[in-house]
Amino acid sequence: MRVNNFREFDNDFIQKIKPKQIQIDKEQLYQENLELKLKTHSLTQEVLRLKTKNMQIENELNRKEESKDIKYTYEKPQSTTLIPNLKKKIKDLKNELGQSEKEIHRLKSNIKCSKTTELEAEVQAYIDECTRLRHHLEETLKAKQEPTEEEIMTSHVLTSLRTENSELKKQLSTTKNDISALQKSLDEEKKKKRPIVKKIDVNKRTEIQKLRFALDKANKDFQEKEEKYQTDIALLNAKLEQKSIKSQTSKTTAAPKPMPTQNKSNENSESSKYKPSKSGPIANLFITKTKIKTIQKSQVADLLLRSSLSLQIHRIPKESFSNLINCQEPISHTYLKGFFSNDPFGFDSTESSILSQYLIDPYDNEVEELITSASLAHITEKFTSNTDDWMILTSADEENLDKELTDIVSEYNIILKEACLNADPERKGLIPIEKYQSILNDLQITLSPELENYCKLLFFSCNMQINVVPYEFFLKSYTAKDDENSDMDDEEIAKIVRGYLERIADRMIENRSSVKDVFSYDDEGVISAENFVEGIEELGIYDIPQGHMVLILEALQYENSENSCVLVEELEEILQHYGVEGYKDSAPTQEKDNEESEYSDDYEN
């Protein structure tokens, strides 16, 4: 009857007049309808479960009452209050059960409880994995305890080598003692045989040295200024000659001036003292024209070297230099200046003008007039004669030279690095080529001419500078990759990675930033290697070597990608163990918590 009444009540409720305008969206109504359906379904299941439990309890109670009634028929009843007490206890237990089930359901609907269950499952999986690895480790240790024949042989060899080493050390110490004794005796004999020399005051020596240094410096400054002034004077003389020639030509073409009046005769006589006399056939014999000095090879030696290296980088042979100049003869200074300013040379305006003037000038040291054009044959002949020959290397030749370089650098890597760092106190990563050559000579490293030229080409291609060695980039590029981390065990690598992760976590905790705030990622949540390095540099960590950075990226490598990258979620989980909080999307999470609390309150009511 109750069910029928409930259905009639539902039908009556449904048949009510619906509002004409519904202000709630259809999607929201649909979502609420689905949520209510799910809720009703769960409640019906819970009611069925409670009904079945109630039925079981009632059946059990009836069974116990029947057994007690049969018992009381044969025996006298001890107390009449037992059955109501039991019924009351059953009712209390039912109420407690209902409350506990409601509490369990409320806890299950909370997100925190689900997180704890997930963490418990993870911990259990971690414990199982640890036990498995422990058993595996015990088995491997048992297997390793029994020494093999090779290990026995190596131990014997090691003991013999240690004994030999100790004996050699003893011999070395005795020889050192003998050398020190001989040195002492030699010093004593030198003191005995030393001639008497007049003592010179130390202050006078220092003053003499200071004066010498000052004099040398003054001489150098004077020479530099003299050369500068000579070049300036030569250029000014050339300009003056051009202007005088123009003025003379203009005077010959112009009309004759009228004779001055008698009143101005005195002024003309005075001004004639300071004005130059008119040019004539006799006067020209006594005029000496100043010659212009041509640009010498020493002034453009670096530019010639740079131009030859630029052509080698672009794989242009020396014979093809004339083919690069596409201009009708005679070739002007302005065209050559533009030619050297463009690729493959890329000189600035002053450098290109000096080099083009040098190629246009004749082989003489001085000329009467400034020459502004020359033939193609003259320019090519002067360029080829003043530059060294070079060969265009094939890919096979380059591979062989690279292999030879890697072998040499890998063998002397540590010694070369230390020597270059000592030669570079400012830590710029660059040293002069003279110092680099002296380092190679000290280490007795001899390079073939082909390899030496190839090294010069590599140094120039790095930063487009001559006579400079970028040793840091060079040693990193030509060190074998296996040599960098080959000596490290897995434990050492893990220790290095953990240390850097702790530093990253500490910086993020100080800045109160999350992983997604620091590291930029794509739509799939993948952080590229470049973005990972940029994020670490944003945290203020700049001293991680390249080899260690490679180790960190290998440890955090995303398995589903072939490229070097890191997944954001995995990095968040790892850094959470070091105390970094996850990415907080505050507004949505608060709304979800509010919705869950409302649903839980509704369910309890």
Folded structure, characterized:
The chain has 605 residues and is an all-alpha fold. The longest helix is centred in the middle third of the chain and has 52 residues, at 202-253. The strands form 4 sheets. A two-stranded antiparallel sheet has the order 1-3. The protein has a two-stranded antiparallel sheet with strand order 2-4. A two-stranded antiparallel ribbon has the order 5-6. Among the domains are: 26-72; 87-130; 207-243; 292-385, Recoverin, domain 1; 395-483, Recoverin, domain 1; 488-591, Recoverin, domain 1, CATH 1.10.238. It contains 25 helices and 8 strands. Residues 593-605 have a biased composition (Acidic residues). Residues 245-278, 581-605 are annotated as: Disordered. Keywords: Coiled coil.
Cα distance spanning the termini: 26 Å
User: What is the CATH class name of the domain at 488-591?
Assistant: Mainly Alpha
Tell me the major beta sheet: 2 strands, antiparallel
Which structural class do the helices and strands define? mainly alpha
Q: What's the rounded overall pLDDT mean? A: 76
Write the CATH architecture name of the domain at 488-591. Answer: Orthogonal Bundle
Helix content: 55-70%
Work out the number of β strands: 8
